[in-house]
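Apologies for my clumsy wording, but can you show me some protein sequence, whichever is easiest, together with the matching structure tokens, please?
=====
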Amino acid sequence: MATVILLRHARSAANGAGTLAGRTPGVGLDERGREQAIGLAERLAPVPLRALVASPLRRCVDTLSGLSGQRGLAVETEQDLAEVDYGDWTGRSVRELSEEPQWKVVQQHPSAAVFPGGEGLAGVQARAVAAVRAHDARLAAEYGEEAVWLACTHGDVIKGILADALGLHLDGFQRIVVEPCSFSVVRYTDTRPFVLRINDTGTDLSGLLPADRKDTSGDAVVGGSTGG
């Protein structure tokens, strides 16, 4: 199968304000976020991307706009990579929400968390994983198993995808940190996913190049890393 770079959108106005934007329309990037988005072209320069897929929300599409123009790749939107529907919590401050009884469930037992008037985190994980695997299989069939593609989505969505790839119960997904404009990388195979990066905010992605891959099978390295 192919390799997917999971990109959390660059910092948004809501991130800076400490509010839960959810699916509120029109939430764009703040000044820092725009700077982060501009830097994507340089960070990804050595990586031969085959496709750009994004949540339909503005902050994700805006994050990829410069990269899309630089690479000549259209951004394909995917509804199943959209932000969590936080329902009645949408637009409220995180500080205020931390006083809600349901907040403890979200933090400690997220597999049972259903947002009032919104959706549950277990359902979010299921739809996002299915979408990523479907795009991955399509692109591998079209471009070969060394294909690399990018999906720009949201923090909780990426954490759910990573928990699945790591074989981690959803109740442990709050242990994963995914910062704005960070890369997390998963390579899927017929037998298991391999998590290559988590929350990477650097520039060296050369390890994703086909020439640098030591093994493209579904077997894990025995005895530790390949670094000796």
Remarks:
- Residues 66 and 181 are 14 Å apart (CA to CA).
